[in-house]
Design a protein that fits this description.
Largest sheet: 6 strands, antiparallel, barrel
Number of helices: 4
Number of strands: 21
Oligomer: single chain
CATH topology of the largest domain: Helix Hairpins
Distance between the termini: 52 Å
Strand content: 35-45%
Radius of gyration: 35 Å
Helix content: 25-40%
C-alpha cells in the first residue's frame, strides 16, 4: 500500500514539474502600449513663426539738405499730428535754374495728384464700410428669423471688420498724402531764397515713435530718414508660410497666437499675399514662402504687452471636422500602398487595414476600418504580428 502511495506522489510531482516546464516554455504576451480610438472634432492646422508689425507706419524724412538738430524724441514717445519732430537749418540756397524749378513744380503736381487719389480711396473705403455694415445688420435680422444660416452672418461680420480696417488705412494714407503736398509746396516756395531760418519738420499723423533713425545732430540730405511713426495699438501678425500649406488657408480662418510671452491670443486671417518669395531654410534648402496677414481678434487688453517686431508662433486652422473617428499617429504603419493598425481583441493583436482622411500633428481621421472604442497598439515593434498575444503595459 505504501508503495502505491509513493508512486502516486511521484507521478503528481513529475506532472507538476512537466506542467511548469510547459507553462514556462509557452510564449508570453508581448507588453504593448494601447490607445482607444476616439470620436470628436478634429482640426488640421499650419504652425509657423510670425512677427507682430504695426499696420500703418510713416517714415519721416528730411525735406531738404541741411543741418538737423539732435532729436529730443525717443522710441515710445507719443506724438500728435502737427507736432514738431525735427528742426533743420538749411544750407545756403543754390542758384535756382530752370531744371530745378521744373522739378520742384513737378513734385508739387505729383503730391497734389497723390492727395486726390488718396481722398478718392478714402471715399471708396467709406462706401465699402457702410455697405458691409448695412449687410451685416440685414443678415442679423434674417438669422434671427432663421431665413439664412448663421455662417452668412459670420462672413458679413468679417467683411465689415475688414472694410473698417481698410477705411482706417485709407484715412491714414490720405493724411500722409496731404502732409507730403504741404511739404512739397513749402520746398517750392523756399527754393532759390536765402536759407536764413530753420525748417520745421512736423508729424503727419498721431501715434508713437517706433524708431529714431537720426538721433545725433549732423548734416543730412534730402530724403534722409529721421524717425518712424505708427500706432502700436494697431498691430497685425505676418507669418511666412510654405506655398504648399498656404493653398489651404483662406480669409477668415481662425488663428491661435502663442509664444509671445503672454497667454494665447485669438486671431483671424485677413489675406494671403498673392506673391511668394524664395527663402533659404536653416538647412540651406530653397523654399517658396508667402506672407499671411493676420488680424488680432482679441481686445487690446489681451495682448497689451506685445510690441512691434515681436516674434510669435501662429497656428492657422485649415480644416475643421466636427465629428470624426480619430486614431493617434503612432498607431499607424505603412502597409504596401495603404495604412494599417493592430487592433487588440481578447488579448490578441489583429492587423486591420484603414483608410485615412485628414491628419494633424497628433491624430488622423479614419474614414473606414475602425470604430470608436476600438483598442489599438501604439508604436508596434517587430515582435507584433497578426495573431500575437499582447498585454497592456
Amino acid at each position: 500500500m505504501r508503495r502505491w502511495i509513493n508512486r502516486i506522489v511521484l507521478i503528481v510531482v513529475l506532472g507538476a514539474i512537466v506542467a511548469t516546464l510547459v507553462w514556462s516554455m509557452r510564449p508570453q504576451p508581448v507588453p504593448v502600449e494601447l490607445a482607444t480610438v476616439g470620436r470628436g472634432p478634429l482640426q488640421v492646422s499650419v504652425v509657423e513663426d510670425g512677427r507682430a508689425v504695426v499696420e500703418d507706419r510713416y517714415l519721416v524724412t528730411a525735406p531738404l539738405a541741411g543741418t538737423v538738430g539732435r532729436s529730443e524724441l525717443r522710441a515710445g514717445d507719443p506724438v500728435a499730428a502737427g507736432a514738431v519732430v525735427a528742426r533743420i537749418a538749411p544750407l545756403p540756397a543754390p542758384l535756382l535754374d530752370a531744371r530745378t524749378r521744373t522739378e520742384l513744380t513737378g513734385r508739387v503736381d505729383v503730391a497734389r495728384a497723390q492727395r486726390r487719389q488718396a481722398e478718392a480711396a478714402v471715399e471708396r473705403a467709406r462706401l465699402a464700410a457702410d455697405f458691409a455694415t448695412h449687410e451685416r445688420e440685414r443678415l442679423a435680422a434674417l438669422v434671427t428669423t432663421r431665413t439664412v444660416p448663421g455662417i452668412e452672418l459670420d462672413r458679413a461680420a468679417l467683411s465689415a471688420e475688414v472694410a473698417a480696417r481698410d477705411l482706417a488705412s485709407a484715412q491714414f494714407a490720405a493724411a500722409v498724402a496731404s502732409h507730403a503736398l504741404t511739404t512739397a509746396q513749402a520746398m517750392a516756395a523756399r527754393a532759390g531764397k536765402p536759407g536764413d531760418e530753420e525748417v520745421v519738420v512736423e508729424a503727419p499723423v498721431s501715434g508713437q515713435v517706433l524708431r529714431v533713425l537720426t538721433e545725433s545732430a549732423g548734416v543730412v540730405g534730402p530724403g534722409t530718414p529721421l524717425l518712424e511713426l505708427g500706432d502700436p495699438q494697431r498691430l497685425e501678425i505676418v507669418a511666412d508660410v510654405l506655398t504648399a500649406d498656404a493653398v489651404a488657408i483662406h480669409a477668415g480662418a481662425p488663428v491661435t497666437i502663442t509664444s509671445w510671452g503672454g497667454a494665447p491670443v485669438a486671431g483671424r486671417v485677413r489675406r494671403v499675399e498673392p506673391s511668394a518669395t524664395t527663402r533659404l531654410s536653416a538647412l540651406g534648402v530653397e523654399e517658396q514662402r508667402v506672407a499671411v496677414v493676420i488680424d488680432l481678434a482679441a481686445p487690446p487688453a489681451a495682448w497689451a504687452g506685445m510690441g512691434d517686431g515681436w516674434r510669435v508662433e501662429v497656428e492657422i486652422v485649415t480644416v475643421e471636422v466636427p465629428d470624426a473617428i480619430t486614431v493617434p499617429l503612432g498607431a499607424l504603419r505603412r502597409d504596401g500602398e495603404g495604412w494599417s493598425v493592430f487592433v487588440v481583441t481578447d488579448g490578441v493583436a489583429h492587423r486591420r487595414g484603414v483608410q485615412l482622411g485628414h491628419k494633424n500633428r497628433d491624430a488622423a481621421e479614419i474614414t473606414a476600418g475602425l470604430a470608436a472604442g476600438d483598442r489599438v497598439i501604439l508604436h508596434p515593434g517587430e515582435r507584433i504580428g497578426d495573431g500575437v498575444r499582447v498585454a497592456a503595459r
